[in-house]
Model the fold of this input.
Amino acid sequence: MSLLPVITGLGFVTSIGHDRATVVRHLRELRHGFQSAEFFGNPALPVKVAGTLNGFAFPSPSWRDWRWPEKFTVDRELLRGLAPHGVYALCALEQALADAGLTAAQLSDGTTGLFCASAGSPFLLGNFIGQLQAARGERGNPMGVISSIAGTLNFNLAARYKITGAVCGFVSACASSSHALGYAMDEVRLGRQQRMLVVGAEDLTDEGVVSFSSMRALSNNPDPATASRPFDRQRDGFVATGGAVALIVEEASLARARGAHIYAELAGWGQAGDGHNVAAPHPEGAGLREAMRRTLADARVNAADIAYVNAHATSTPAGDRSEALALHATFTSAGAKPRISSTKALTGHGLSMSGAMEAAFCALAIDEGFIPGAAHLTEPDDVCEGLDLPRTSLEEAPRLVLNNSSGFGGSNVCHVLRRVA
Done:
């Protein structure tokens, strides 16, 4: 008999807020976190908007120059091994632990694991390699590798919190933290771990943003109010963001025994590949359709049972169309019509952190009793006809919610979250 994983703690460093209350308010009011931005000091670049992280600043590769909001405490001894998104992750995880009523001392007995997701830090990696090249290999930052490669989160956080349970990092592009959450669910369901810390984080730096411009994946719309508009006919690409989100996943009986607040049950998850293209989604959404089918089966629910879908939709023409077709195949063809929105209209696309971020938003929607609206949608694409895309947030309490994520190479991951009776 499998055990039941539930979410007991959430922490946020996002463009729409650095705490739970602010995030809930912005989701309800559809207040975006975008500002005008200039990259590499070059006003000629066509990308003009980003999902900014107020109060954080990383003006140079030197940790001595870094700044964060005063409400957060970051041990400076840790900074030499951290990337900017490692700072975000520490701030988010500390929030989540406090929210769950846990202390660091409770994490080191082997019953708690840590799964993380990030793409590493192009900002620090480029600087580290530049130092090596300039010195012809004779001198380099001893923490250069630790702070910059894709495993930097699990390296640093596992050491910081003395985690002796399962520790792993996940790299599947924009599905990475969704994979981390899915496999964390399985660790709990199979009784391998009583508790899992799940963290997704990304830098918000010039190197990490502009690299997507050459792929024509970013919006060139200079208006922060309309640059990110998933499912809209006029969408032209995603708006980049960074930050971190942390979730505490626990076995339900353990959470109840210690009186923890339970946001939602993690009822099931699934994944499927497109088998199609290194970067472009399957034109008919085949992989995402199969991932949704497997997820509903794992959760033992029907399409008609889902009240709300937090779509992956990033505001790219091809990606949103592919997902809309997958949604039709999963829901419309079954006579089901859940509410659908993409909260990336408010936050921007957080790349590998987006799955964890949006799962956390789903948990908030279940716990607080509302459904985020489809922000910035004025002229839905024809392919969306028949989908329920509410323009405003709804004061409806969803019982079952589906969260979708997709990444390069056709990695598709979904989760079902359920309100706890």
